[in-house]
Amino acid sequence: MLLLNKQESEILSSEITPKETYRAFELNRRQLMRGLGSAGVAAGLAAALPRKAQAEVKIDNLVATQYKVPDRATTPEGIAKSYNNFYEFGEEKDDPAKNAHTLVTYPWSVTVEGLVAKPRTFQFGELFHLQPMQQRVYRFRCVEAWSMVIPWDGFPFSELIKAVEPLPDAKFVQFLSLANQKEEILPGGIHWPYSEGLRMDEAMHPLTLLTFGSYGETLANQQGAPVRVIVPWKYGFKSAKSIVKIRFVKHMPPTTWNELASNEYGFYANVNPEVDHPRWSQAHERLLNAYTIFPKVVPTLMFNGYGDQVASMYAGMDLRKNY
Ligand code: MTE
């Protein structure tokens, strides 16, 4: 997730970074995670699942977004769909594209429960057709200091919130991903199911997108098919994939990365160039927008460039403490 200020025409195709460039970085990251958690189970963990089945839906009802798109070249689709984090399918960036074909995305339902007047289980088709799709180009800024610009297709998550009528005590929303494997521990020491959360005002914000597709097509499995969230002013790990449960709760819910290393991954996780990760600076990001040995490095923008639209939600909060 990210954004910036270079015109598309100025970006050279030679500016894209091959995965080898990240190898050393990734090794460091994995070493940390092995230290933190139990052994990686990785690769073939979904091998026992039935063959994939796709939901019969098409993204053909896109309406123009009312939000400005970032002034930055769009990441080539091939990169966005082959360099992913989806630990359920392995911890290497290219593992999800190799392994997630075993994810069964149909039939699929999403249960909405907790502090709502109208708890409900949506069959995927009902959810997909709840509102017309909008396409938005979002900067995607990862905590590991790389970034992409991806056109995501979906509708504001607030539409679902309105449909289930939260009770006054509902202060946070928790997203839970599919957990259909036998292993309790994912590669990297992560526990099932992947959990993320937002404060209610963040969840209601019109930039928070319930996402069904990208580049005008339904999501690829490795991107979190058939439905995920995108929260464009936050680091990528806030955007839970392959969601099966949405819970409205009174207290801040436990979240996967925060439970694994709370000093590194806060609940808020707003993109903030001024607050360093304990092991590296967050002031710059490498653009994965082209295939190149030397990726372009650019300054990271506060709130990923969406400050005008989201900063007021954090007025008065110490963002060094609430990182
Ligand atoms: N959701 C689930 N269920 N499992 C995951 O491992 N990884 C997170 C987030 N959502 C993850 C997840 C992280 S760390 C990132 S950076 C983004 O998804 C990556 O999304 P992308 O692979 O589509 O770019």
What attributes does this structure have?
323 residues; seven-stranded mixed β-sheet; alpha+beta; 12 strands; disordered N terminus; binds ligand MTE; five-stranded mixed β-sheet
In short:
The chain has 323 residues and is of the alpha+beta class. 15% of the residues lie in helices and 20% in strands. The chain contains eight helices and twelve strands.
Describe this structure as you would to a colleague.
There is one protein chain. It is built from 8 helices and 12 strands. The chain is α+β, with helices and mostly antiparallel strands and 323 residues long. It has a single domain (16-314), classed as Sulfite Oxidase, Chain A, domain 2 (Alpha-Beta Complex). Strands 3, 4, 7, 8, 9, 11 and 12 form a 7-stranded mixed sheet that branches. Strands 2-1-10-5-6 form a 5-stranded mixed sheet. Strand 3 and strand 4 form a beta hairpin. The two termini are 17 Å apart. Residues 1-52 have low confidence and may be disordered. The chain binds ligand MTE. The site of ligand MTE has 17 residues, from loops.
